[in-house]
Amino acid sequence: MCPQVDFDTIVHDFDARTQRGLARAISLAESGRAAPLIARVYPQVGRAMTIGLTGPPGVGKSTLSSALVRKARTLGKSVGVISVDPSSPFSHGALLGDRIRLTEHFVDADVFIRSMASRGHLGGLAGATADAVTLMDAYGLDVILIETVGVGQSEIEIAELAQTTLVALQPGSGDSVQVLKAGIMEIADIFIINKADHPMANQLRREIRSMMEILQFSGWVPEVVSTQATTGVGIDELWVAIEKHIAWLKTTGKMHEKRQEAFEHQVRQLALGNIAVRLEDRVKAESHGASDPYAAAERVLATFNVSL
Ligand SMILES: Nc1nc2c(ncn2[C@@H]2O[C@H](COP(=O)(O)OP(=O)(O)O)[C@@H](O)[C@H]2O)c(=O)[nH]1
Ligand SMILES: [Mg+2]
User: Fold this and answer.
1) Ligand whose nearest atom lies closest to the CA of 84
2) What is the pTM of this model?
């Protein structure tokens, strides 16, 4: 974010629907200074179709993103791609790979690609990403794809910002077991068996089926779609499955529920982030030379007008 760019300029560029305006608005969100902009655009959100895509490194998420962008473009839809890779904040290797796989879309004015960081956002990376989704939606992008590496709780949380969560796995990698352990299976609305030309693809399908039995999904039962992201095989079927899931969310009223939960989650994260910062200062101050932890905790709480 260029410090010399003032807020009014960003708002002006954003309102004029320039990619530069959107890019700067997201940078503002990353640095935790987008609150007035979010307040201003919030009445316009809720139009976009949001898709989360998660899975282990190397499974083909970025290649799938690129294929999904291509599909959405053939349908005349504008697309935003948010790429989140907290596992490599300093080495840009993964992000560079993502960019290479998305190069064909760079010149397309209706495709906006962004990798995320959280430099000062109270809600952390998930908070910054949530703001980016809000901004892209308000900007008018039809489809928003959020790619995250499925390695930890916060990445899972980011995938869940979306209406539909895709979990990508690849055959012959032992992925399914890893993913079950990491708690990623539970968030899948659609399983993707990517690199489906691999000889062990059928085994992975069986593994997914047996894990689905263990997890006993109720309501929506995840679809399992085989793809070859590099050639585009299965992408049409994947798109159909996504649309089917979104239709299900709408007809059952789950869409509304999901939105409400996501809203509450954002409020909670913002409030907790703020309280955590204040709390840390007080804890340090009151712990120094304190007679016992309870007494110190009482003094900390007293500054918030509450007691144990
Ligand atoms: N054979 C094969 N390779 C694929 C397929 N999809 C992706 N790849 C390759 O797998 C590697 C990792 O892909 P990438 O999209 O960067 O994975 P990510 O780390 O999950 O984003 C790249 O070399 C891709 O070309 C596929 O369907 N079949
Ligand atoms: Mg990637």
Assistant:
1) 2
2) 0.90
